[in-house]
Design brief:
DEHA2D08998p, transmembrane helix, 11 helices, mainly alpha, single chain, 0% strand, elongated
Length: 296
């Protein structure tokens, strides 16, 4: 790592690194469990997409904003945690304190990867599905391209921050943290709107949200109490937990409580049947055009 980034540390490296010492073993163990829980929490969503083979119920803007929010957050924590990695590099921290200082990076890295994988799984599992709205899939492909572009820009930002001065590094980190919080708030608005309009959760997993909503508050707490943590790294998760809780209550209401002679399952089935009919009509039209061309 570039020495210019840490020129302000100078001969007081050890003193500057003392903030990462004295890590709690209990908090470390708790954080490891939270990390495992993050992975487990996304499995119901992946499974639901795999089984249903459709993006019905998932807002395209939710996928886009959620993926970009994750990239912003990951960029933030990579930069913010760079000081701790420097302390590890110069030997100012023992192995345990060093590992503990990178827990935020590990946790957020896993969480962001899992969130972006929702978009990836949707793209892979619904591509050839007869249940999938083809126009919607085209929009999801466009989202995937924008997310990939954002990822490239993020890599450039990380290298710029790490190999210049610490003032610029913190500026880039804070901007990414603020944008992450902003997109986190924004991403739930289209998803809440979509769920309210459809009156059913569709492919959106209630099981995932049941795990993630309380876990989000616990995760925020572990980030907050981690040695050397910065507010810009945990504020987006607090906002996400609050808004996801709202979405969860809405999904539970439509799935299990509201029943005016028509269930959410029937509503979802109608939408999927409509997509199937449209796709079959499209296939038949293509076949008819092919026959005409052959005969001519």
């Amino acid at each position: 790592m570039n020495d210019l980034q840490y020129q302000s540390i100078g001969s007081n490296d050890n003193n500057k690194c003392s903030v990462f010492e004295g890590a709690s073993k209990i908090n470390f163990a708790f954080s490891v469990l939270i990390t495992i829980g993050i992975i487990v929490s996304y499995l119901p969503q992946y499974r639901r997409i795999y089984i249903k083979k459709t993006s019905e119920g998932l807002s395209t803007n939710f996928l886009f904003l959620g993926s970009c929010s994750s990239i912003f957050t990951l960029t933030n924590i990579i930069l913010v945690s760079s000081k701790a990695r420097h302390c590890c590099y110069i030997g100012a921290l023992n192995f345990f304190n060093c590992l503990n200082s990178q827990l935020n990076l590990i946790q957020i890295g896993i969480q962001c990867t899992c969130a972006i994988l929702i978009l990836v799984v949707v793209l892979l599992q619904t591509r050839y599905s007869i249940k999938q709205d083809k126009d919607e899939y085209a929009r999801i492909v466009t989202v995937g391209k924008f997310v990939a572009l954002h990822g490239i820009i993020s890599i450039i930002e990380v290298f710029t921050g790490l190999y210049t001065n610490r003032t610029l590094l913190l500026t880039i980190a804070q901007i990414n943290g603020l944008l992450s919080a902003l997109l986190t708030m924004m991403k739930y608005v289209p998803q809440i709107t979509t769920t309210y309009r459809l009156k059913h959760p569709g492919t959106l997993s209630i099981g995932m949200m049941c795990i993630q909503t309380p876990g989000g508050f616990i995760f925020t707490m572990t980030l907050f109490f981690t040695k050397g943590s910065h507010w810009s790294s945990w504020v987006s998760y607090l906002v996400a937990a609050l808004l996801q809780g709202t979405l969860l209550l809405l999904c539970i209401y439509y799935e299990y409580i509201r029943n005016e002679g028509i269930t959410s399952e029937i509503l979802e089935r109608r939408e999927i049947d409509r997509n199937i009919i449209q796709n079959l009509d499209g296939i038949n039209n293509d076949d008819s055009e092919t026959d005409v061309l052959i005969r001519s």
